[in-house]
Amino acid sequence: MRRIWIRIAKRIGWLIKDIRRSIRRMSPAQKKMWTMFIVAMLIGGFLGGVIGRSIEKSNSKKAVVAATNEVQKTEKKKQDALKKELFDLQKDIEATTADLPWNMVLVNGAHEMEEGYVPELVELKDGYQVDKRIVDAAKQMLADAKADGMKIVICSAYRSVSRQEEIFNDSMKDRLKSGMGYWDAYVDTSQSVAEPGTSEHALGLALDLISNQYSELDERQEGTKEAKWLEENCHKYGFILRYPPEKTSITGIIYEPWHYRYVGVEHATKIMELGVTLEEYLKDYYQPEGEQ
Questions:
Q1: DSSP letters of 66-134?
Q2: Residue 182 located in a structural domain
């Protein structure tokens, strides 16, 4: 093998010498012609590489576009299926929620509250107001929690529709300022802030309750002892954890370990034991009190 490589090296050396001799024998015109030929070859090689890379990039872009289109088609199918599922669920719920009592009224993105409705309000604590009919239950829950060493803070109770509109719009503006497109900002906002007319806070039946050890409204709130106490005991006072984890596709709202809604002791106990949302309960389990 070594001898073969030596022979090849010798022949290359001879070839280079022959080329040099040939160039020395050329006339100036021939040298110019060969120079132009070599330059043309180099330029051709360079352009070929550039064009080749451009074609390769073009093909890559086409592949990316094709893959993106395929993903978008798949996601659209999923979204369409989810929309149909929600539509069917809403139809089923509507069939059973025509004449619900005040404590079971469903308000969400698909069921707006009665226009112009304002509950009879009384103060619960620190200026926060609720529907008069739930104030005793809410006070008892907070008092018992305090007796058990919990330090629960009310951060929201009744909110008017106009106040809800301000909050929704402010949240939208924050997302737009962060660089989100309008549609993305709207969708993201609507999953964490109910649109005006679709918030349970306007019913006066909802409370946002947090630990004084952790003030952020995010999923880490669930790790506080106060959140754990509330989830375990809220049903005893007629409240439910309204937006539980992994139920966003049903409620339309992200997991909120701080949002509690009054439905009455009997229904709250069943909802929390079943581990379902209010939407699911009304569709599959609800029976008016006295008809069980």
A1: HHHHHHHHHHHHHHHHHHHHHHHHHHHHHHH-TT--GGG---BTTBPPPTT----EEEEETTEEEEGGG
A2: no
Q: Phi-psi category of 210—alpha, beta or left, where left has phi over 0 and alpha has psi -120 to 50? A: beta
**176 in a structural domain:** no
Q: Is residue 185 part of a domain?
A: no
Instruction: Provide the domain count of the chain.
Output: 2
Residue 124's nearest CA partner among 209, 4, 2, 251 is 209
* Euclidean distance between the first and the last CA atom of the chain, given in angstroms as a whole number: 95
pLDDT at position 51: 57
Better pLDDT: 291 or 202: 202
Using DSSP's 3-state secondary structure scheme, residue 290 falls into coil
SS3 category, 236: helix
**DSSP at 203:** G
Residue range(s) defining the domain that contains residue 262: 107-159+199-284
Measuring CA to CA, which residue among 241, 215, 242 is closest to residue 228? 241
Q: Are residues 92 and 116 in the same domain?
A: no
So what's the pLDDT on residue 119? 94
| Residues contacting residue 190 through CB under 8 Å, at least 6 positions apart | 109, 168, 252
pTM of the model: 0.64
Question: What is d(CA 177, CA 171) in angstroms, rounded to the nearest whole number?
Answer: 10
92 and 4 within one domain: yes
Residue with token string 């039946």: 205
Distance CA 113, CA 100 (A): 13
Instruction: Judge if 32 and 113 occupy the same domain.
Output: no
